[in-house]
Amino acid sequence: MIKVLAIIGSGHxxxxxxxxxxxxxxxxxxxxxDDYNTDSYIKGHKILGTTCNVLNEYKKGNFTDLIIGIGxxxxxxxxxxxxxxxxxxxxASIIHSSCWVDKTAIIEEGCVIYPxxxxxxxxxxxxxxxxxxxxSIAHDSIIGSHSFFHxx
Length: 152
Description:
By secondary structure, the chain is an alpha/beta fold. It has helices at residues 12-23, 54-59, 75-85, and strands spanning 4-8, 29-33, 41-42, 45-49, 65-68, 94-95, 100-101, 106-107, 112-113, 118-119, 124-125, 130-131, 136-137, 142-143, 148-149. The strands form four sheets. The protein has a five-stranded mixed sheet with strand order 3-4-2-1-5. It has a four-stranded parallel sheet with strand order 6-9-12-15, with helices on one face. The longest helix has 12 residues, at 12-23.
């Protein structure tokens, strides 16, 4: 079965997630939903429509998993879309193969862990969270849902 990732948001963050999803072997294909981009394709990936189309396209079998590709400037929208579709559509988590994740760490659904991240023992990363390139999360930390981290 072909694994197809749907990403809400086709801007820079969504495009980065698409790149890592394909190049790191997590998914075979990526499609987008975007309320502002009226193009048919972006970077070779089809835009299936607006966020109003997500559930119908899932029911048609046009994708297998969903992830939110809306960035830190719109955190409330990230949260609202996640809550709208959780328990209805499966959410993917993408953990880049260059990351070191301790076996006791828990990463919930809808998370994106960019290249070079280190996640130490007994860490809990709750749903719909993004760790940008080379973030390190110390042991016994709890990262709340809908968070966005980057290294400075």
